[in-house]
Amino acid sequence: MNTAILANNIRKSVLELCHKKKASHIGGAYSVADVLAVLYDGVMNVRSDNPEWSDRDRLFYSKGHACTALYAVLNEKGFFKDLDLFNDYTSNGSFFTSHVNHKLPGVELSTGSLGHALGVACGVALAAKRQNKGYHIYTIVSDGELDEGSNWEAILFAPHNKLDNMTLVVDYNKIQSFGRIEDVLALDPLKDKFAAFHWNVIEVDGHDHQAIKDAFGTNFDNKKPKVIIAHTVKGKGVSFMENELLWHYRSPSDDDYVKALAELEMNNA
Length: 269
Ligand SMILES: Cc1ncc(C[n+]2csc(CCOP(=O)(O)OP(=O)(O)O)c2C)c(N)n1
Ligand SMILES: [Mg+2]
Fold this sequence. Notes:
This protein has 10 helices and 5 strands. It is of the alpha/beta class. It has a single domain, classed as Rossmann fold (3-Layer(aba) Sandwich), CATH 3.40.50.970. A 5-stranded parallel beta sheet has the order 1-2-3-5-4, sandwiched between helices. β2, α6 (149-160) and β3 form a beta-alpha-beta unit. The longest helix is centred in the first third of the chain and has 18 residues, at 3-20. It is globular. It binds thiamine diphosphate and magnesium ion (MG). Magnesium ion (MG) binds at residues 142-144, 173, 175-176.
């Protein structure tokens, strides 16, 4: 399966989950779908048949509200062979909670209270360095999430400790829950801010799979951590959801579901 098909399958699964369970956050799941597809299609060294393998690469997925995209890619990659994502998502007693749950195979950290995963990732990266472990630590944060001060402590900490075994991805979709980033709390010039904090910075179109792959593959050899600022579109993949604030919280109606699925099916034709 190529990454384009994987990304489209992620989007179809997300649609199914959000429609069937009347769940939110489809917009943020769609903006990050391509980054996840590339990460899990050969960038990250993980084993679905042994999710706790000690030398695995780690992903700390901080934007836990957009759990459907992470659950979808793990499902596609065979991490949930003994589980039933589509039936059990948000059901009482299920680990498929509506924010990311670490009790699921392949999930490192429960997230949903924004602003925590990058600090945890720094700790794991520091431990890996001290133990001479070769695995890589990935973190994905959303853009609105960068309003949380805890992120900036971690952004200071990582270069100070020469954590070049870390890669951070910012899903820069320019929209948070109640408004546009530039209106609520502007981040630009984001690249300059990371550079001033001594990170290696790469900016990419977060829907261009080759560009994302190249960014993950770029090594700087200067002991600094790397951040990939992925310029994305909230709701990417379904025309009437793209760049629309509404789709942060709205779940697809029956009519929306049919229209959205028709668009996604066209990509597989
Ligand atoms: C600490 C904390 N405050 C508030 C919320 C409520 N909340 C859920 S998503 C969100 C913002 C979503 O915008 P963004 O971070 O840009 O995510 P994305 O656009 O990728 O969905 C907020 C404030 C939360 N989950 N955690
Ligand atoms: Mg956002």
